[in-house]
Amino acid sequence: MNVTTPDVAVVGGGPSGLTAAAGLAAAGLRVLVLDREREAGGVPRHSDHTGYGLRDLRTLMTGPAYARLLANRALEAGALVRTSAMVTGWAGERLLDVTTPEGRLRVDAGAVVLATGARERPRTARMVPGDRPPGVLTTGQLQNVVHLHHGRVGTRAVIVGAEPVSWSAVLTLREAGCRTVLMTTEHARPESYAAFSVPGRAALRVPVATATRVVRISGRDAVESVEVEDLRTGERRTVPCDTVVFTGGWIPDHELARAAGLAMDPGSRGPVVDNTLATSRPGVFAIGNLVHPVDTADVAALDGRHVVRHVQAYLAAGSPAASRTVDRSAARDFPYTARPSGSGTSPGTGTGGAHGDDESGNAGGRETGGTFADAIPLRAEAPFRWVFPGLVRPGAGAPPRRRILLWATEHRPIARVVVTQDGREIARRTLPWPVSPGRVFRVPSSLLSAADPRGGAITISLA
Amino acid sequence: MNPRVSRSGPLPDGTADVAVIGGGVVGAAVARELAGRESDGRPLSVVLVEARADVGDGTSKASTAILHTGFDATPGTLESRLVRRGYELLGEYAGRAGVPVERTGAVLVAWTAEELAALPGLAAKAAKNGYLECETLGAEEVYRLVPALGPGVLGGLTVPGEAIICPWTTTLAFSLDALARGAHVVLNARVKGVEHDAGEETLLLTSRGTLRARWVVNAAGLGSGAIDRLFGHERFTVTPRRGELLVFDKMARPLADRIVLPVPSSRGKGVLISPTIYGNVMLGPTAEDLRDHADTSTSEAGFAFLVDKGLALMPALLQEEVTASYAGLRAATEHGDYQVHLDAARRYLVLGGIRSTGLTSSMALAEHAAGLLAETGLVTSVRDDLPDPPRMPNIGEAFPRPYACDDLIGEDPAYGTVVCFCERVTAGEIRDALASPLPPADLDGLRRRTRAMMGRCQGFFCGAEIGERLAPLEEPR
Questions:
Q1: In this structure, which CATH number among 3.30.420.360, 3.40.30.10, 3.40.50.720, 3.50.50.60 belongs to the domain B5-60+167-237+335-382?
Q2: At residue A265, what are phi and psi to the nearest 5 degrees?
Q3: Is B416's CB within 8 Å of A103's CB?
Q4: Which of A69, A232, A380, B280 places its Cα 20 to 30 Å from the Cα of A275?
Q5: How far apart are CA B90 and CA B18, in angstroms?
Q6: Contact assignment for B303 to A101 by CB distance below 8 Å
């Protein structure tokens, strides 16, 4: 088996992975991106509509153009991007087994950045009973079929979900000559941005059934109909169709993270990370929609930009000529006083060097503010299902974009955010945007600046 | 595709010595066995007739996939004898043909006083069935074996010989072996009528035309009762018993590395938790008698029942994603044993009412069938020119698969090109399946040969790519 020893291995060549690779390579590191698809770029490759690049590139372009641009930037910066390269498992702390058409490869990396993204939960995971004919798919598969493979779908579709991605499915279906006869959402109102769904409904003439769930799919050789239930009345009706698209319902592609035994967030089901995007394994970072399933591609990409200096700091800590590269200015709006290093954990515990055998340089070179292990847990109360990051490491700077991300399961028109720590309210603010299921709710991280760095868990809730 | 396999077009000419109706695991095993025999120094000509477009596409594909010791069979029955014999035969054959088997062992778990009290009786019954390895366990020992079990275990009984096997590869191996021995495989041919001419021939009127055979073996599974009536008998009725199963993500596999069996009690048979040969964990089955012989749909009630059971048996399992749910129809009859009857006058043999144990007993049933036909003078001896069994591509999780084999990838980069990521299926394996003597007829058939698209993403990433690779199957043949 061939062995390669990059400074950083980035697993997944979507927006976050490619952006991280470009930044890390530009900083002079030897970066290897491993992507299992035939072309790098991730999900935007088959999202053939505009809306990409706003926050990271300050421009708007289509998904495929965005995917190509990010891949080119990574290459131009000097990263090596290997496609058709699937990471199949771990052979050590930062040692990856990879299958490629040119043979198997062992990647012995100084640091690993997991950027494996998220996928939509398919019908099976949602446990929708009935017959099992072909013609039942996710948006991801639909867009692959239509945009990358130019295949055919049916003529009458029912879409499960009313998130932004669901409307993207409507557009893709329309392009393929398939009419959306019904969109269903279990929520009392469509999850999507109001700006999209109202004209969406008008322009695309898609009826949206709220508080409705699909309870059965019928048709033995092909889809003939779905049965839907009105959750308010319990009434059921049959909707004839030949295609069913399950949209949204995101779950991270977390197999590698779990295989590594990383601490996992039960809400997002991605690995727990702190504000530096470090996971529970030293030198393994996780970014993008793997850790916040899902925010938009540009937000994922900005995780990639954010993680660069923290990977650099980690690698620098492992070398004798370590210099501290943490940008302390970024820590202004976050609890930044270092936790006393004598409080229960011995110096160096849980940090590890760039190469695990080099314990000596760790304690002195690591980022100020302790380790993943002694960071403060960040929690969210209902109606939130998860919060990102799940840990706050005092003194390590703000999280990406100085935003805390949360995922809600219910709509709230007014967002009165309350932050507490150890029973004490440390911040309260009404934000000018509503809380909506099906998309990320963003909270400025400055709301955490009054947190006690020596205190206990911080909780975010709605008043 | 082997020229003796057909999905459309003209049927084989002439008169076969034996037509076997039903390309499930039992029919395929019988076709393989009989194609290996001769009559008066001449190999028997055998045709396997299947109503569906592929072998193993009915009950055989949706079993619980356990290689049973037969410990809990009713002592003295044909089923008990054939399961025990079949366990040995299939276990040995699997090794030679590369059918994946994992010797996981099983533990019966008692949750009530009644179930606990039943354990010694089950051990005694196992002994009567010739199985002597069972051991009773205290609750702590059960938790030591399966730490993920929910609270409330009272005790258990081990069945170390129980194993898991790939039912798909088994049926395919038998079919390929039958082909290699000279048999024909006629697919998409539903038997709708039977005529006897004055001579020694039976005419099978199928949806693709008429087949002629001297002898007919009925291994039609759910259809075995109807075929039996076409031969003029009123011996048994098949009532499809639907069993719904949930399959959990591979991430769940560490929770269940052996089979967890229920103790039959007054509350019913209960459900089992089993590792699958593909590295998943399965929960089920339900048991519900149906009228419709083709209704393999799943139901809300079935799911709710299984979730309820699963939460009690192994709460952590329900935290994992369900990657598949399916329903199998078992061929239950009103009788407590297999329905094996020889009708020498009509040159007809029925192997009916083969329940979920049929996977294990398949080769023994085939051997038994050959023995019965030997008594009639049809079969005389075993051929001495038999080809080796086929070497099946491994789709078992516990054994090396191409993506992990340096030498294979070195010879052929297609084995290093992963197409289905969740299941790590390579372009080489898909190509091989499509080019095999018995290729798949559709995506489901490809899945049974390679595992393509049976994973957690269900096609989110690879569905379009695999669909494109399957496109040649859509062309008229």
A1: 3.50.50.60
A2: -90, 120
A3: yes
A4: A69
A5: 23
A6: no
